[in-house]
Amino acid sequence: MGITEIALIIGFILSFLMAIAMGGNDASTPCSDVVGAGVLTIKQAVILFAIFTAIGAMSQGFMVMKTVGTGIVPYIDLLGAIIIVVSAFIWVMFCNVYGLEISVTHSIVGGVFGYGMAVHGVGGIQWSLLQTIVVSWFASPLLAMVFAFLLYRLLVVFVTKYEGLNKIMSFVLKLALCYSAYAFGANDIGNATAVFVTVTKMALGHAPEYNVMILLAIFGSVGIAIGGIWLGPNVINTVAFKILKLNVVGGFAAEFTNAAVVNLFTSVPYMLIGYGIPVSTSLANIGALVGVGFASYGSSGFNRRTVAILAMGWIATVLVTAVLSYVGYLVLFPFIGPILKPTP
Question: Is 344 a domain residue?
Fold first, then answer.
């Protein structure tokens, strides 16, 4: 077995493991609102999450599978790709166990940054792109908070006036969960499979073919489903019950706002500057929940301690994965070397 075959096997295994970790953490984003509102149990919500995530990944996931760290650093060698994903996997799994909702995207960005500092130095980092990403991390939850606040207040007026809307809202909230899970599968499967795309481009000189990407999306969906069912309830419990007490109207306002804000950051920048700005669905979801809490009960409408812990987790995500990646590469490189470098 040659280096090419070994590299492809390593890339596939790491992608599958990353999918499990991602499913365990990101299941909370679509599921927490409907569970917190009491419309579905955790088990029911996670099953729907797994089904519609798989549909989204297999139907549109190939469109967004991209190379790990494209644009942040000039290139990533095979050793770097492995260390970046392993660093992110370790941290995400740690957070899954302790019920902390973080961003898998932030984990990857932190890992890429640590690798970039170890290999390319300060001058090799694309700081303008990092600045744009960091700004989006702050902007998306704030925007979600404002939109959710306004939407909740508007919905309360209509539900009060038309009492029959409560039953309709429960059904609509279930549909929102399915759509959110579908969008998650279509857009975020690349976070799990990106390392395989990176390795394939290094080993073969080109990205995987369409059929390979579909197959990769299927296996990635299986990993996400395993992670969601196995570890998802830990994080769902935190987000659904430890931030605020949700009703059906609040659950829908948070779910819809989360999806709308993420879509806004994807679509509008693409139309204006040619590429979408990646944002975290996790951050947008927490921002939306805080907005609903404000609209419901004012400043006492949400658990500030839980939100503060989650915020510290978001900051720690980038720092921890960057340090793990930086140290890991410096320690292993003298013994292993880059293993495989991308073709010019």
Answer: no
